[in-house]
Amino acid sequence: DAGITQSPRYKITETGRQVTLMCHQTWSHSYMFWYRQDLGHGLRLIYYSAAADITDKGEVPDGYVVSRSKTENFPLTLESATRSQTSVYFCASSELGALPGANVLTFGAGSRLTVL
Amino acid sequence: AQSVAQPEDQVNVAEGNPLTVKCTYSVSGNPYLFWYVQYPNRGLQFLLKYITGDNLVKGSYGFEAEFNKSQTSFHLKKPSALVSDSALYFCAVRDMPTGANNLFFGTGTRLTVIP
Fold it and tell me: Is the peptide bond before B97 cis (omega within 30 degrees of 0)?
């Protein structure tokens, strides 16, 4: 299926556990992003990646780790989950800046994470 | 630093009436501006963008937005609201040129269209 897929869609975990949220895109977009959505904050950027093996911090990176060994995958790991990381997480992708479709982010359906 | 403000958490409008969802921005250079819509339990969907050119931008589902540089605003508008337009709307900005292709989002405005 074409598009951007996130898994799992729903996850409940306990404080201190490691959690990995997966993101897979089929467009070969260069850029990929992880946002978290919280009431009153809108979407805040956690990490982004400009290409395979290139990642950079966003606005709220603490407590998260990312990797991008392949262009199509961009997993987000919470190494030791905390209650403040309860949120809805969105993965997104976009083309390089100079192309016609650039700057338009395409989002996955989201992963709702609850940390007890 | 770039930022986006959506001053209204909630907008209610009667079906068939015109709607406006407000957005103001702050950037150091020329902005790229976007509107996205989010339906329940879904990811955000792109509506329209302003990069350069005409200040009035037309997008999906009959929406349009007007870029006003002097007021640093990019309000979303639609001449006649539909019940199906009820959703959460996000304004976003990218300060260009920057090295990153990422957007900064506002806190969102929940639009409710009343039948």
Answer: yes
Rounded CA-CA distance B69/B95 in Å is: 14
Residue of B nearest to A4 (CA): B43
What's the CATH class of domain A4-115?
A: mainly beta
Would you list which residues of chain B are within 8 Å, Cβ to Cβ, of chain A?
Answer: 6, 32, 34, 36, 41-46, 49, 51, 90, 94, 100-108
- Determine phi and psi for A108, rounding to 5 degrees: -80, 180
Question: How does pLDDT run along chain A (116 residues), one tens digit per residue?
Answer: 568 999 999 999 999 999 999 999 998 888 899 999 998 888 999 999 989 999 999 889 999 999 999 999 999 999 999 999 999 999 999 886 655 566 788 999 999 999 99
| Domain at B3-114, CATH class | mainly beta
Determine the residue type at A32.
M
Burial (Cβ within 10 Å: 0-12, 13-18, ≥19) of residue A6: buried
Q: Where are the domains of chain A?
A: 4-115
Look up tokens 């979407």; give the residue. Answer: A43
The residue extents of the domains of chain B are: 3-114
